[in-house]
Amino acid sequence: MCPRTTEPARISVELKRALEFYHGTVEDLIRELVRVLGVNETDRRALEIVLLEDEKATTPGMLAERLGLTAAGVTIMLNRLEKQGYIARSLHPTDRRRVIVMATELAAHRVQELVVPMIVESYKMLLSSYDSAELDIIADFLTRAGELQQIHRQRLRHVDPYSKP
């Protein structure tokens, strides 16, 4: 006779499967966004940060920290994005020694055109499928999962790369 799976164990397996499926679909979607925008993944992420942080005066140093890049790496990346017309750099209005990175109208328009319809569709689906208490739990879960990802990323930043065999 086969032992019965306990409810917490079953839920754990289902949650693991759901998260793996979700992460895979997010990676697939991002790969397609990268293709359509004509950028690489790091550039796409930088563009996302600049668009989301627009009011907070994104700096090359902040991008370096968030993306785990060197100052030289950020400069090369910003040069690529500027050449494509996605970002513009300017001097900080009060501290002329600092540079601010801003998304251009082209970047905002393309992301708006591509991403906003997906977000609207997602919200409609979620709002029609769950009540407000369930949505509170989902939002809490996603926030906690995101916080864990940040902790894991920080931990990995302190790990030396594996040597080549």
UniProtKB/TrEMBL annotation:
Identify the residues that the record assigns to the HTH marR-type domain, covering every copy. 8-147
PROSITE patterns assigned: HTH_MARR_2
Q: Gene3D superfamilies from the entry?
A: Winged helix-like DNA-binding domain superfamily/Winged helix DNA-binding domain
List, alphabetically, the SUPFAM superfamilies matched.
Winged helix' DNA-binding domain
Q: Which domain of life is it from?
A: Bacteria
Spell out the protein name for this chain: MarR family transcriptional regulator
Q: Lineage, please? A: Bacteria, Bacillati, Actinomycetota, Actinomycetes, Mycobacteriales
